[in-house]
Design brief:
By secondary structure, the protein is α/β, with parallel strands linked by helices. It contains 12 helices and 26 strands. Helices cover 29% and strands 28% of the residues. Helix 9 links the parallel strand 10 and strand 11.
């Protein structure tokens, strides 16, 4: 079961407690149950939900996964042609699935698929995979234990509900009987207001959001002492973001974790309020409850501690595979129940270290360099507020490492960047060219875009300025 039987339970036990709040509009547990139950009969066996953030989203999502139903959640920001293409594919899969449903607001069989997940994309058609109800129940149990979600927590996930991070946070809170909040759109001032006035105790967001909230919160004297949990996903937190978040929310345990939509949670670590952030490391903690991790080469053979390779996972939380878009490489199985999405890393003393996607890897003068590792090192250099690294074509080396930094107050020079990297990054991984950025190149979901950074350089965008080599 994912969460519908739990909604029924909370509505019976605590009917007038708050369940969901979106931009100030509130649904208690009884209202959520009754409104979702009223639309189940009109909800198709396989449907596509394309809605902006609203309480209606929560109602329709609950109805769309009732019984044996399946639901695909589309991003309303995607182009209309892309949305139409996906809806057509979803309807085609509905005809193939022939799912039997009834009109009750209750969970379907544990092993049945309920969610059609879509990898993020803006131009090409996203891959679609399915998740079983049991896999999400296993995920709920693991994340509630790992992150310490409590009934009295108030969770704010200020990003789009169409994004898997926020959709999961909504469903996790419904399962746990804990209040969930979001906004119509991400706005720093609105998040600060919710933290100040709505008793928010728990934040779920991506690193760029945390950086903005922390820095502007410190400048504006926004009190975040009541926040006791911060959960970040999307990329490993750099030292500057951790430092700002620690000062802004002094009582929070700051969690970062590694996972993938197809794999669910893999590994994570929590930085308690009393602990000082480490500088420039790639470690992302130990495996989640119920998860086994090993590193393998491309042939599937296990690698020793410290040897980089494919991160391979065995757990009950892994997805069921793809409905469309499977190229044989995106989710690969080894020994039947071990899976990898091709992310690269290594194990050291039981801790997983993340190097990044193979597709992001820079091959320079015969050496493999992962931009993520370069960015973490640069972000630890004094004078750097944020960083991005990428590979540019090079006639001699194949590719050369280039980096862009958003300077902190006072600015920074190429010489200072080179000096700052000497003790924390191997020589063959250091950038050969540096650029000053007016802002980080990010996607509409707040993730750093290396391709956009390279585009800015090639088009001489005004937001990028060469610092030399």
């Amino acid at each position: 079961m994912p969460f519908l039987n739990r909604i029924q339970r909370w509505a019976a036990e605590r009917p007038h407690d708050t369940a969901v709040v979106v931009a100030g509009r509130r649904l208690d547990w009884e209202q959520l149950r009754d409104q979702a139950a009223s639309v189940v009969a009109d909800t198709k066996s396989v449907s596509a939900l394309c809605e902006p953030n609203s309480t209606d989203f929560a109602v329709k999502f609950a109805a769309a996964v009732a019984g044996g139903r399946q639901c695909a959640v589309l991003d309303p920001a995607w182009p209309a042609a892309l949305q139409d293409d996906i809806v057509h594919r979803v309807h085609a899969s509905a005809r193939a699935a022939a799912v039997a449903t009834d009109d009750a607001l209750e969970d379907g069989p544990a092993d049945s698929p309920f969610l059609i997940g879509l990898t993020s994309g803006t131009t090409s058609v996203p891959k679609a995979f399915t998740r079983s109800r049991r896999s999400w129940q296993e995920s709920f149990e693991a994340s509630i234990e790992f992150f310490g979600l409590r009934r009295d927590d108030v969770t704010l996930a200020p990003g789009p509900l169409a994004a898997s991070l926020n959709l999961y946070a909504l469903a996790e809170c419904l399962y746990a009987g804990s209040e969930f909040q979001t906004l119509k759109t991400f706005d720093v001032g609105d998040v600060h207001a919710a933290i100040t006035h709505d008793r928010v105790t728990r934040l779920v967001l991506v690193p760029t959001m945390l950086r903005m909230l922390s820095e502007r919160g410190l400048t504006g004297c926004v009190d975040a002492s009541g926040v006791r949990t911060i959960i970040c996903a999307g990329s490993k937190l750099d030292a500057r973001t951790l430092e700002a978040a620690r000062r802004w929310a002094p009582n929070a345990t700051i969690f970062e974790y590694y996972g993938a939509s197809e794999l669910s949670f893999v590994s994570g670590a929590g930085l308690p309020a009393s602990r000082t952030p480490s500088r420039g490391g790639t470690g992302i903690g130990r495996p989640f409850p119920g998860v086994e991790v090993r590193i393998i080469d491309d042939a599937g053979s296990p690698l020793e501690d410290g040897e980089p390779g494919n991160i391979c996972v065995r757990s009950a939380m892994v997805s069921d595979g793809y409905l469309w878009g499977d190229d044989g490489q995106a989710l690969r199985a080894f020994d039947n129940d071990w899976f990898t999405v091709g992310d690269q890393g290594y194990l050291e003393a039981g801790e997983l270290h993340i190097l990044g996607r193979r597709s992001d890897m820079i091959l320079t003068a015969g050496k493999n360099v992962y931009p993520h590792e370069v960015e973490l090192a640069l972000s630890a250099v004094p004078g750097v507020a944020a960083a991005v690294a990428a590979g540019m074509p090079d006639d001699l080396r194949g590719q050369r490492v280039v980096a862009g930094v958003v300077p902190s107050h006072g600015g920074v020079t190429a010489a200072q960047l080179r000096a700052g990297l000497e003790d924390i990054l191997a020589r063959d991984k250091r950038p050969l060219q540096f650029y000053a950025l007016a802002e980080l190149p990010v996607t509409d979901r707040g993730k750093v875009s290396r391709s956009l950074f390279l585009e800015w350089i090639s088009t001489r965008d005004t937001r990028v300025r060469s610092l030399g080599s």
